[in-house]
Amino acid sequence: MAGFRSLAHQVRDARNDRALRRHSLRRCLERFAPYGHRATWWHLCDRHGIGPEDRSADPSRLVAALEELEEARAVWLEYERQFAARRRREKHDGLRRPEWAWSGSGDAVVRCADPGVRPQGALGEVLRRLVEALESEPGTGCPVCGARELHWPVRVPPAVAAKAVARASGSATAGGASGAGWAWDGPVCAGCGIVVPRPALAETALQGADLAGAA
């Protein structure tokens, strides 16, 4: 199975026909798609003037889209590296805290609940804002756009959301990790449409989102 770098090379290789270069870019999203596959693809198409179904897109536009994706991937991989190093140090020092149930693959780390509603700006800038939030104290609003209106998805019953909030609060108070990882996905931002990662939100924000979703 081809990796991200190999697929990126195929996108840039002028010897390949346009259809293959486009296909290779789509396959890059199988390795890294911060908004989720469809939302990330639509984002790149909108940003770089590519028809989502165009099999003969301008190669220069495909490469520009790839470069944006690569920049965002570099931002996230650096965060992964620093996070892993920090956790090793903390564990060595005996500091235990809940481990979030995120796969670490970079896939849908800032998922869009509706692929048609996405943050403004380049992927790299969005991920920089997210990383800054994850490396700071939990906030009370969306780490990407700053909106404070947060809602649990309709598919999450209010009672389940309340239980998740109580679990997060109790685990944080206890200072230990539970047997299973915590859910990474939190409430949906009404401003930019992302599913806000729980680690970026304070308990008060989670509780407020729960009440909004129950209304």
Structural commentary:
By secondary structure, the chain is mainly alpha-helical. 50% of the residues lie in helices and 7% in strands. The chain is built from seven helices and five strands. The protein has a three-stranded antiparallel β-sheet with strand order 2-4-5, with helices on one face. Strands 1-3 form a two-stranded parallel sheet. Helix 3 crosses helix 4, helix 4 runs parallel beside helix 5 (123-134) and helix 6 (158-174) runs antiparallel to helix 7. 34% of the residues are buried.
- Rg estimate, integer Å: 19 Å
Query: What structural category arises from helix and sheet content?
Result: mainly alpha
The N- and C-terminal alpha carbons lie at a distance of: 47 Å
Helicity, as a percent range: 40-55%
Helical stretch tally: 7
Unreliable residue runs = 168-182, 211-215
Largest sheet: 3 strands, antiparallel
Strand order of the largest sheet: 2-4-5
The coarse overall form would be globular
Q: Please count the beta strands (DSSP E, at least 2 residues each).
A: 5
- Give the percentage of residues in beta strands: 5-15%
Order of helices and strands: HHHHEHEHEEEH
Q: Average pLDDT across residues?
A: 83
